[in-house]
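New to this. Please check this fold:
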Amino acid sequence: MIGDLFFELSIAYLGAWFFNLLVIELPRRKQRADAFEAINYRLRYLTRTGYALRLQLSICATDGDWNEQDALDPTYRELILAGMRSNR
């Protein structure tokens, strides 16, 4: 009698856990992944902009004498230097 009760309770618990997985957890994980995918571009843009700003301020602080190792890739470096040349 008690064994049957525990068996029924364990089956009910497993059913509730599986239901929670299918109805709550999987959609929540998909929604979270979609949200990260939606803001991924903006986060990358923000980090690149921050790094470029740090580089530009470093160049300004050294009066244009900057270290090549601290530079970004050539495209961003040229954009930054072109912006500095136009401001001088």
In short: The chain has a mean pLDDT of 79. Residues 2-61 form the longest helix (60 residues). The CA atoms of residues 2 and 8 lie 10 Å apart.
